[in-house]
Amino acid sequence: MKKFNICLIGNPNVGKSTVFNCLTGLKQHTGNWTGKTVETAKGNFKIENYFFEIIDLPGTYSLDAKAKDENIACEYIVKNNFDAIIIVVDANCLSRNLLLVLEIMRFKKNLILCVNFIDELKEQNILFDRHKLKKILCMPIVEISAKKKFGLKRLKYEILKMCLGDYKNNRVINLPNQIEKLYEIGDLIEKLVVKKNFNVKQKNFFYGWDKIVLNKFFALPVMFLLLLIIFWLTIFGANYFSDWLAILFGELEILLRKLFFWLGINKFLTGLFIDGIYRTLAWIIAVMLPPMAIFFPLFNILEDFGLLPRIAFNCDGIFKKFNCHGKQVLSMCMGFGCNAAGVVSCRTINSEREKLIAILTNNFTPCNGRFPGLIILASMLINKTKKLFLLKIAVILALIIIFSVCMTLISSKILARFFFKDRESFFILELPPYRKPKIFEIIIRSVFDKTLKILFRAIIIAIPAGILIWLLANLKFNSVSFFNFLINFFDPFGKLINLDGKILTAFFLGMPANEIIFPLIIMAYKNNLTLIPIENFKNITYILKSNGWTIKTILAMIIFYVNHFPCATTLLTIKKETGNIKYMFLAFIFPTLIGFLLCFLLNFFVF
Amino acid sequence: MLRVKLTELKKNQTAKILLVRLDWNLKKRLSEMGFCFGSEIKFIYEFNTTFAYEIKNSLVALRKEDAENIFISF
Predict the structure, then answer these.
(1) Hey, which CATH number is domain B4-73, 1.10.10.10, 2.60.40.10, 2.30.30.90, 1.20.1070.10?
(2) Which residues of A touch B34 (CB under 8 A)?
(3) pLDDT tens across B27-71, in order?
């Protein structure tokens, strides 16, 4: 049976992904801001025994775009042939959307125009004349509201009709190629098609919340408070889940051991699988999964609401002074969830230089994998018996976050100064209207889409890491294990910056995933041959203090914990995103150097 | 016709764009978003040195130094 190829194209933030999800039933994450879909997504669906493959392209304003995510769309649509092309437009700003429609009309046929957000027009008492538009553009027009699932049956019907060749007079037409001329045509069409009644209700969706969010005095505090609430919910909410998971994994380990014993598997393999792979995996999942499962949905709700672009808008003034782009704030926020995800989200930054800077400095924001470690370090700085213990930890954490933001800005400035001198920079950002987020769907989508994806990636990396760690600790060369060999090698460097060889070895071996840095340190101090079992995380502070950790060590540790090389996943993502292995090395060396330098300087300030 | 910088627009005031005097790359990008001859533009608000304008029924943010190179007439 023949499979029909169709594709979805349209301006950014017109709801292509929502249409895609409605058609295929797939759960691609949607968001209320420009450039949500950064890669093409493919899906299949069926209408009356006919099979269709649909491609969701990233949003683009016109066909010769500059940013990478938009380029994908252009190349794709120009090079490939489709049985039907669905152009999604936003009914609220038809004339601008028509530019892309007209451009595509110049060299593609089999077009279907899909007018989204028609319900918002109706709420404002604005009339939209579908039949007239159909006559002007000579293509089938479908009015839909992807959110309210209205008009989708009609869309499916039109797709089927188009693919079976029922529309004969759909053809390529000659149109001018200057944007100004096309806009004139677009404006004219809009005037003909959209009729504003005299009792139009101006729906001020731009301005309602903006009074607070974009207020001169409130904006930054409100924003900061909001982020703080998210972090608080993430960190303390995740704590419960982590404990719970830790117990579960502990029980499971006992069961596994019994199973291995019962099967009669020899000691070497048992060690490799349980002490090596299983424990590393358990650590990573227990530490990483809960905060991520809380953080990403919360973040996505803000995203869907339309707040994130406003945050970028607010921050651009400050960021500009450090030669950064306002949108970097979004990739940084994303970096708090996972640095690799943060690096990917840098794609939406449309000027090349700022994008590179944002990618290279993303690692300065501590990700969820590093947060539990920071909490331990913070709690070590305070006397536990005193009052307001939790509040003090929160304050110290907030200070660490501010420190990391400062480091990001300063290092961005340094990078801009010495590495990317002469590339132009600009800031254009579309601020979408506020829309009600679909909370339930967001939670499901972000868990299945983002969290599980990142988790899966971490698991893939954790398995070889577990094997490596176990082998290093258990294989001996001249009766010194490789692990101890590494410790001795790193010791002079560590002493120089107030740390020691064991800590540096832990950082080095913790490169696959930062979650296992602390377990590795404990393993080194206790001279264990394996990572400690996961339940023992609570008395970590005691072990560290008994191994000669002073305030200086803790401070140095915090600094190095924030400023060190990114994890392996992030490095690979950087290589993929920049397409240049040079930047990967730069991303490795640059933060490490800064961390070393700062820790070294600590010698002169703290006694 | 009087030629005025875009930054001189007052809040909620509307004008028409005359010309965009910026380098090719940026000009192209702006024209995609509707910043080209004859488009109506309305100043909505500013924050620090970033300005937000309503153009073609959507809200677009610009930096001050870029907005200064866009000229309008009433």
Answers:
(1) 2.30.30.90
(2) 95-96, 183
(3) 888 888 888 888 889 888 888 788 889 888 888 888 888 888 899
